[in-house]
C-alpha cells in the first residue's frame, strides 16, 4: 500500500511542479486510462482533474491488490501464520497485468521525475547539507543539545550524531546548516 501512495503522490508532485506534463505521462497506461475517465466525466480545472486522475489510479491499484491478495490467500488455504510461511511465495501482491502496469508507471517516474535535473540537484544539495552537519557535529559534539551529548559515552559520537540528524525535518536541517555555516545567521 505504501508503494501505491508513494507512486501517486509523486505523480501529483511531478505534475504540480511542472517537472512532468500531462501530455508526457499519458504515455503511461494507468495514467492515460484514468485521465480519459476524468475527461469523459467533463471534470474541469487542472488541479481537480489531476486529483481525480490520481484518485482513480489509487482506487484501481488498491482494488487489484486486495482482490489478488484475497485470491492468493484462498488458493493457498491460509488459516494461520504458519500457513503463510509454508506457502513458499508472496501472497500479497498485484495481478500480473497490474504488476506490469505499475512497473510501467515506476519506470516512467524513475526516468522523468526521479532523474529530472531539478530532483538530482535537490538530492545533491541535501547530501551536502547532511554531510556538513554530520562532520560539524562529530568534529565538535558540544554543538549538540545536552541530552544528545549525554549519550555519547554510551553510544559513541557518530551514532548519536546520526540519531540527531535522523530526527530532523528538512526545514530544521536547512536551518541548522545555515546557523552553523552562514556567518550572518544568528545561532
Describe what you observe in this structure.
The structure is a single chain. This protein is an all-alpha fold and 187 residues long. The chain has 2 domains: 2-115; 119-181, no CATH class. 75% of the residues lie in helices and 0% in strands. The chain is built from 11 helices and no strands. It has helices at residues 2-17, 22-25, 29-40, 46-75, 81-86, 96-114, 117-139, 146-149, 152-155, 157-166, 170-181. α3 crosses α4 (46-75) and α7 (117-139) packs across α10 (157-166). The radius of gyration is 23 Å and the shape is flat. The model has no long low-confidence stretch (mean pLDDT 95).
Tertiary shape = flat
Q: How many strand elements?
A: 0
Helix content: over 70%
Helical/strand content category = mainly alpha
Approximate strand percentage: under 5%
Distance between the termini: 42 Å
Biggest sheet architecture: none
The helix-strand sequence is: HHHHHHHHHHH
**Weakly predicted, low-confidence segments:** none
Relevant terms:
2 domains
Can you lay out the helices and strands and say which pair or pack?
Layout: H1 2-17, H2 22-25, H3 29-40, H4 46-75, H5 81-86, H6 96-114, H7 117-139, H8 146-149, H9 152-155, H10 157-166, H11 170-181
Helix pairs in contact: 1-4, 1-6, 3-4, 7-10, 7-11
Amino acid at each position: 500500500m505504501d508503494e501505491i501512495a508513494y507512486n501517486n503522490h509523486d505523480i501529483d508532485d511531478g505534475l504540480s511542479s511542472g517537472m512532468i506534463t500531462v501530455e508526457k505521462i499519458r504515455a503511461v497506461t494507468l495514467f492515460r486510462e484514468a485521465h480519459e475517465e476524468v475527461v469523459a466525466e467533463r471534470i474541469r480545472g487542472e488541479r481537480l482533474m489531476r486529483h481525480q486522475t490520481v484518485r482513480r489510479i489509487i482506487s484501481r491499484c488498491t482494488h487489484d491488490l486486495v482482490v489478488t491478495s484475497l485470491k492468493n490467500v484462498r488458493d493457498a488455504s491460509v488459516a494461520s501464520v504458519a500457513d503463510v510461511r509454508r506457502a513458499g511465495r508472496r501472497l500479497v501482491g498485484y495481478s500480473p497485468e497490474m504488476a506490469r502496469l505499475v512497473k510501467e508507471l515506476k519506470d516512467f517516474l524513475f526516468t522523468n521525475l526521479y532523474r529530472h535535473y531539478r530532483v538530482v540537484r535537490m538530492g545533491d544539495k541535501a547530501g551536502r547539507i547532511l554531510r556538513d552537519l554530520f562532520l560539524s557535529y562529530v568534529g565538535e559534539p558540544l554543538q549538540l543539545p545536552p541530552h544528545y551529548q549525554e549519550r555519547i559515552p554510551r553510544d559513541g559520537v557518530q551514532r548519536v550524531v546520526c540519531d540527531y540528524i535522523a530526527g530532523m525535518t528538512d526545514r530544521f536541517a536547512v536551518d541548522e546548516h545555515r546557523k552553523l555555516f552562514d556567518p550572518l545567521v544568528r545561532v
